[in-house]
Amino acid sequence: MAGKDKTRKTPRAGLNSSVVFGSRIARLIFASNLAGLAILIIGAMVLNEMRAGFVVSKKQDLVAQAQIFTSLLGDDATTPQPALDVDAARQTIVRLNLPERVRARIYLPDGEMVGDSFYLSERVDVDALPPLREPGRVARWGRNLSEWAAHVFGPVMPRRSSDAVRTQTFEEEFDTAVEGGEAASQRFNDRGQRIISVSMPIQRVSAVVGVLTLESSDIDEIIRAERAALLPFIGVAVLVAFITSVLLTLGIARPLRRLAVAADRIRAGASERIDVPALSSRKDEIGDLATSMEGMTEALIERIQANEQFAADVAHELKNPLTSIRSAIETLESVKENPELTEKLRGVIALDVKRLDRLITDISNASRLEAEMTRVPNEQIDIARFVKDVVGTYESLALDEGAVTVSFHDATMGGRLLVQGREGPLGQVIRNLIDNARSFSPPGAVVEVTLDQTNDGPQTIARIKVEDTGPGIPPDKLETIFSRFYTDRPKGTAFGNNSGLGLSIVKQIIATHRGKVWAENRDGGGARFCVDLPAI
Length: 536
Known about the structure:
alpha+beta, Helix Hairpins, Heat Shock Protein 90, 6-stranded mixed sheet, phosphorelay sensor kinase activity, two-component regulatory system
């Protein structure tokens, strides 16, 4: 079935564009979604680095203070035995004037606490000694979130704080100091506060007479400050996510909605085609989709119009022999007494019935062929072998005297040309062209079928030529002969043997195989039909 020959915009996206990062929209989606996450990750890493540096600095500060204080205690609060002078040690703690968030405690080697700056300091008040309580829900959530983040991002996060200040119990820290070592740790104290603790031995010469523990409890305030510092990053990430969501909505969701509305209008009969020029001009997959949908609707409209025209042509072609049959039957009633005329009218009726049968058969084949071309999948065909096999079905004609025979010549010099197509429809193309050439050839003539190879730019083309020695084709009919129901038979041709659908079916099949077919006259007389099919 011949359709309108229009040049359509071919979508740029091929098979390779299905790769994620080959898609502009995919890159946009990935970039927009990762932007906010990247901001949060960078902010978290920056703040984690700040926290790591603070913890290390706090630990080093406490160690320096502890070294000074233990030196003072070793000089002023020990006796020659050697032993710790408890009263002198308490007085020393009072004189140290420690910062509000630093707590100092002195223990004897057996673990008995003999001094606590929170109780000895003059700053002690009710607020400084709150009742014991469990960490709040927010604190627990924050601790769990921190532990989860440490587990997930631990491999890429700085590790200085965890390496420099371990998490351990006070008993472990105290045991290390009693043995003469220096110990530092992170933990929660009896008030539920996160602290950094440093324990050092108080020595008289080389004997350990006590243990000094310094604790800093301002870590929670620092962590809260860090979380507050993270809020701008979160705000920027939320803003970026909002902006990118709006862009994605404007760039993807709204165009797709416009296409859906345009398709619904066509379905409802309010429009005949999709008209979205702004989308078709886009240089991405949305533009390709709009272009494809425009091409699809145009093809559907052309198919519908072609089917309507086909139905009208069928009705017209069927009406002619029916009118002739009716006229012959009416005339037959009035000439019953004339045997010669009666027999002639019966012959006319028989020919018209034969013509009707031929028309109905060809129309049925054309309709079935159109459905078959949408259902049967394409396959690779060795076109030389295939054409040779089709021509081979005519070998039996050589046994009939005066019959028109068919010969095949492979001009590709053994080159193996593969064509993507369907064997059934392509076989019908070759048979229709051969039968058409035989019908125009004189008795005893030979129809020549030749397979050749040519090129259309970089594309290799398989060209099939079917040549006869008949009267040729009028120059003004070289295009018309491919129209449906067109017949222009030479005198003496049997009536009713041709429906005029053969060449139109050929053109329809070749069009679905992305090829082309045309007719021309040979220099020495006769017609030549050429079929070009793109080779793989």
